[in-house]
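In response to reviewer comment 3 from the previous cycle, which asked for concrete evidence that the modeling workflow produces usable outputs, we include below a single protein chain processed end to end. The sequence was submitted unchanged, and the resulting structure tokens are shown without manual editing.
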Amino acid sequence: MGRHDAVRNGRTDGTTGGCLLNGCLVVLVSLLACFVGLWVWAATADDRAEGAARADLRSGAETGQEKLAGAVADGVLGDREIEGIFPRGKPAQGLVGIERHGPDVIVTAELLGVGPGVFLTGETLVTGCFTFTVTPEGRGHRGAEVVIRELAVEREPQSACTRKGAQSPSAFPSH
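The workflow returned the following structure tokens.
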């Protein structure tokens, strides 16, 4: 079977036209796959950056929890100690309020989480409002306990600490 017979029968193996056609298809499919991959990556960049900022926010809350537990270890938790743990700043307010109920202290603070930037922006910022319920040593457990509750944001971009929302069901006690 000659070259022309192979083309007539639909087989283009080894012919110049077949190699060009197969090569072009491979290039086009590769370019399409790259385009779709970049599109998906770009479409999810905001979510990834916000997720990283929220993880940083949560880490900041846990750091505050540890510092409060250390500060109350001596049995006394003063306002100055609390102010040092949650300094006021922008865009997060820092310390918002201190409530005392007998030996227990409830600290409300707005914290800041920082994540990577998206495209041309420098960084992604998120704020969250947390209450820290501090129970000193000797109240039914071995050491001082600090329980974190994140207050729900009612609507963005309103600060969670300007109007406290419903408490989220998650509570994270320290030991």
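The chain has four helices and five strands. We consider this sufficient to address the reviewer's concern, and the full set will be provided in the supplementary archive.
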